[in-house]
Design goal:
The protein has 385 residues and is of the alpha+beta class. 46% of the residues lie in helices and 26% in strands. The chain contains six helices and 13 strands. The strands form two sheets. A six-stranded antiparallel β-barrel has the order 1-8-12-10-9-13. The chain has a four-stranded antiparallel sheet with strand order 5-4-2-7, with no helix packed on it. A hairpin with a 7-residue loop joins strand 9 and strand 10. Helix 2 packs antiparallel against helix 3 and helix 2 packs antiparallel against helix 4. The longest helix is centred in the middle third of the chain and has 69 residues. The protein is rod-shaped and about 180 Å long. The two termini are 69 Å apart.
Length: 385
């Protein structure tokens, strides 16, 4: 028992010596410094609470330009980075295909107009003849009936005389022939009178044919107008004022129409309005409750890390998006033109002017390009003193 206590004391003493050597003497021998606690006095100052997020620079608007017509590009006067205004000519296509479509549509329209004129003439003739035809057929029917009744009476009388032996068979046959002719004429007159009575129905049918002919002309006229529009669409003009930030075609490219093509047609270019610039970021749901529209922000673009641009929260998404069980909200921050430092603008302008890259004409006045990466600090609380 005494030996056990003795060994325990020896272990405690040796262990304590080693601890002292390595942490005090040994540490100093190795050149390490002992960190001493620092004591400072509490004092008043400013406190700022921010929500940090990283996103991409986006333009105010970006319009994808497509063509309503199809064909080969013959003229493309602008390059990526060029400034264009609404209505300026951007692209000229080979108009041959659309010119042939216009000719076909024009011939179809002429044919439809000819059929319409024919239907109108037939209807007008039928309407003018309707009353006269009915009166004439009615008079002809009365005359045919009188001739039929007279021929019938003559035949019956001569048949009696023939039976009495007073009249010859040739005379009886002649009376019968007259009777048959009168009967046929009477039947024809009845048919003509019935046809004349059906004239109003025939006129209604002819009027329906006229309506169909008018519809055909209208459809052909619309097709002709559309062909003319597609012909005009071979000259594609700028739909908006801005900078060409993405040019996707060149002279000689054969493009597909954005209207008639199932795939949506060929995208020609993107025109961006850089008069207003935004940074779109995603804020975690745990922080979005502290973010509000109009809150001031500080923006630092990776392209200009030494310069801070002022901004403000312009929009917060009403609904979040979930990804990997994490919900976040889209927040759009706009650069605040009123708080921009003139010296920063001057420095950025100098850099842009000195850069030989022609695409710099696509820069905004503060030097940002769409799709640049930028870090945003949204100031949710700024306490003074």
């Amino acid at each position: 028992m005494k030996r056990l206590i003795k060994w325990l004391l020896i272990i405690v003493v040796v262990g304590g010596g080693l601890w002292w050597f390595f942490l005090r003497g040994g540490g100093e021998a190795n050149g390490s410094e002992i960190l001493e606690p620092q004591i400072v006095s509490a004092e008043r100052g400013d406190m700022r609470v921010v929500v940090e997020a990283t996103g991409q620079v986006v333009a105010n608007t970006s319009v994808e330009v497509k063509s309503k017509a199809s064909g080969e590009i013959l003229n493309l006067p602008y390059e990526e980075g060029d400034w264009v205004e609404r209505g300026w000519l951007l692209v000229e296509l080979d108009p041959d295909d659309e010119r042939r479509n216009v000719e076909r549509a024009q011939m179809s329209l002429r044919s439809a107009q000819a059929r319409l004129n024919q239907s109108r003439a037939q209807l007008s003739l039928m309407e003018s003849d309707a009353a006269l035809t009915l009166t004439t057929s009615e008079a002809n029917l009365r005359q045919a009936r009188a001739r039929f009744e007279n021929a019938q009476a003559v035949y019956e009388r001569r048949q009696g005389l023939f039976e009495e032996g007073v009249l010859s068979e040739e005379e009886l046959q002649a009376a019968y022939t007259d009777f048959e002719v009168a009967d046929v004429s009477y039947l024809n007159a009845q048919a003509a009178y019935e046809d004349a009575q059906n004239f109003p129905l025939n006129i209604d049918l002819r009027r329906q044919d006229l309506v169909l002919a008018e519809v055909t002309v209208r459809n052909a006229s619309i097709e002709y107008e559309e062909a003319l529009e597609r012909m005009a669409d071979t000259r594609i003009v700028a739909p908006a004022t801005g900078v060409i930030t993405d040019l996707q075609v060149e002279v000689g490219t054969i493009i597909a129409s954005g209207i008639s093509n199932v795939g949506g047609g060929t995208a020609l270019m993107v025109i961006s309005d850089l008069s207003r610039m935004f940074i779109e970021v995603q804020v975690d749901e745990t922080d979005v409750g502290r973010v509000a529209v109009s809150q001031e922000c500080e923006i630092i673009a990776d392209a200009f890390p030494e310069q801070t641009l002022p901004g403000f929260v312009e929009w917060i998404a009403p609904q979040g998006t979930e990804e990997s069980n994490i919900t976040s909200f889209d927040v759009r921050v706009e650069i605040d033109r009123e708080r921009l430092d003139p010296q920063i603008l001057e420095e950025i302008g100098r850099r842009v002017a000195e850069d030989a890259n022609p695409a710099n004409s696509a820069l905004s006045e503060w030097g940002l390009r769409p799709n640049m990466t930028a870090r945003v600090e949204i100031i949710v609380a700024d306490l003074e003193d």
